[in-house]
Amino acid sequence: MSENRAARAHVDWPLIIMVMLLSIFGVYCVAIATYSTSSSPDLPTLNHIVESSYAMRQSLYVLIAPIILSVLINVPYQWLKSYAKGLFMASTLMLTAVWVFNRATGVKAWLDTLWGFTIQPSEFAKISMILILAKVLSQEDPPFRSFQNIRDVVLIIALPSIVIVGSGEMGSLLVIVFMVAVMMWFSGVNWKVYMGLAFTAAVLIGIVIAYAYFSGSDSYRLQRILAFFNPAAYSSSAAYQQTQSKMTIGSGGMFGIGTFVDGAMSQLNYVPADWTDFIFATIGEAFGFVGCVSLIGVYLLIILHMVRLAFHTYDKFGALVIIGVMSMLLFHVFENIGMCIGVMPITGIPLPFLSYGGSNMVTNMGGIGLVLNVTRNRSLSASVSIRAPQYTLRGRQYRTMRSQPYE
After folding, report:
1. What is the pLDDT of residues 131-157, one digit of tens each?
2. Domain assignments of the chain as residue spans, ordered by start
3. Are 129 and 138 in contact (CB under 8 A)?
4. pTM greater than the 0.70 cutoff
């Protein structure tokens, strides 16, 4: 048994409590964003939630969350490795299905299901990529010591990325690029190789942007990039949401104007989609600077807590799974809040646990479930009789622990 108490097997209740509280708060915020003057602001909060179809649907997603966590916590740990490749291929096929069968113009990111619900396969692809990358990057120490290892990583990155670019969903591509970069860094990839890959990625992204610019493309994605550098020129078009969002957040002042207020900017739909990607604007108006800082503090606590869990996980695959989930959430939070306050370009990236959306909620809870599975199955190291070779997790040496397989 590890001498470090933080490394012992446990169900991480602090993490569960934090994400569930955020999710419940998200239902409340969705109800605020979709509040209508047909209701009296003096009515109990539950009335406002029930009267909002979006809040009711979000409540359903939150009720499903504990089921997702319970299932993933109890999945045998070895299955995470064993079925990583199958899950990755299935998610890639789902992405391809959207690309082929979705006849919508512009972004092709959703598949229609029953009762008007839609699913966004790119969200599920993030989880499968975390598992398959953690598996491949933990096979060699350091990674990229063989051609096969390099080939596997390139294919894992390229297959879903090509489909996502073809579907026009650049936000998910950015998440994947960041997630891969962080996982590779923590896996101990040689810094020269790492910088070479980073330079190659930057060149490829630059070529795509240059092609769109010089070909005279009127793509809204290019417009959003240009609007980021010159928002005044696009204040009524590509930068409209961002401009309105900044004004809405600023109107909240220090402590906010309160919730379910007639004439509030959120109630007047001043910011389009303020219950989804721009829900932070609703939070800023209702709860002010103090509320925004408090929310960021909770996210920071979750991120740092997951980093701590990763550095106390004496199995490289498990540690990289936690790092992958952490990096996914970190980029979502940074990019979403950044675009709402005007320091990042606009992308269709939701705020974890708060923005309306079932696919994103399932993906985030699925990621948390994987983290909880890793921490719970540290009991595997309790029966260790043989210690495997050391591995490196970016600057820190660990000894992996070999245990008897599941039966």
Report:
1. 999 999 988 877 887 888 888 888 888
2. 16-402
3. no
4. yes
